[in-house]
Amino acid sequence: MSRPLLIAPSILAADFAKLGDEVRAIDEAGCDWIHVDVMDGHFVPNISFGPAVMQSVRGYSKKIFDTHLMISPCDPYLEAFAKAGSDIITIHVESGAHVHRSLQAIRALGKKAGVTLNPGTSVSTLENVIDLVDLILVMSVNPGFGGQSFIPSQLDKISAVRALVAGRPIDIEVDGGVTADNAGAIAKAGANVLVAGSAVFKGGKYKENIAAIRNAAAQARGEIA
Ligand code: DX5
Ligand code: ZN
Asked: How far apart are CA 132 and CA 97, in angstroms?
């Protein structure tokens, strides 16, 4: 049985001056998860925000907070992001030498563990940690900035991840350049969680934008006509 289709808007594309209200707005607009992009200016060439900001907006939605750590090292901050209200914490395979240990640490904190890989990183890096993860995130842009174009070669990577997952209870998420135009192909390749920043926040029409992405993916999954 395929896993449920979920739409996870990235608050990186929100107006940071009113971040709490933005979280409430995407919640009310029908999102499934809230995707939280954390950048350190070291692992990626941009800085976003840390656990204190996340904690201050946590109360604005009861939905799943899906934290994507683009930071290196990640281990010293896992507890802070768990305490700040993350439900899922995802780390990069490129972020340190001890990915296996980091994933164990996330689970020991009582959180779901996710692993992700940059567009230039091979799926084989996941093979030895697959039994420790609840989610695999395929990056479809080089992380660091919202508003980039989807890298088409990552569609084959999504299919390869689906083959590796082989029916295990693991969500397959895609992040970067996701729009209503490519959501169908992404869903067909095997992803069930679609992250979108610009495509959700553009024009202020959050509800319509989320629905457009969801409908395109649901159609490709054969769930609606
Ligand atoms: C990229 C981030 C993404 C990004 C998505 O570094 O991890 O979550 O904000 O933004 P869009 O949908 O605009 O590509
Ligand atoms: Zn992200």
From this structure: 16
By most ligand atoms within 8 Å of CB, the mutation choice from 7, 11, 12 for ligand 1 is 12
Tens of pLDDT, residues 108-165: 999 999 999 999 999 999 999 999 999 999 999 999 999 999 999 999 999 999 999 9
Provide the whole-model pTM: 0.98
3-state helix, strand, coil in the chain (%, to 5): 40, 20, 40
Whether 1 is in a domain gets the answer no
| Per annotation, catalytic residue among 32, 37, 40, 171 | 37
CB 179 within 8 A of CB 150: yes
Residue 225 lies in a domain: no
Q: Which CATH number do you get for residue 13?
A: 3.20.20.70
Query: How far apart are the CA of 198 and the centre of ligand 1, in A?
Result: 8
Q: Give the integer Cα–Cα distance in Å for 50 and 33.
A: 19
134 catalytically annotated: no
User: What pLDDT, on a 0 to 100 scale, did the predictor assign at position 172?
Assistant: 98
Task: Say if 131 falls within a structural domain.
Answer: yes
Per the structure, the complete domain to which residue 59 belongs is given by 6-220
Total structural domains within the chain: 1
Rounded to 10°, the helix 51-58/19-28 angle is 50
Report yes or no on 136 lying in a domain.
yes
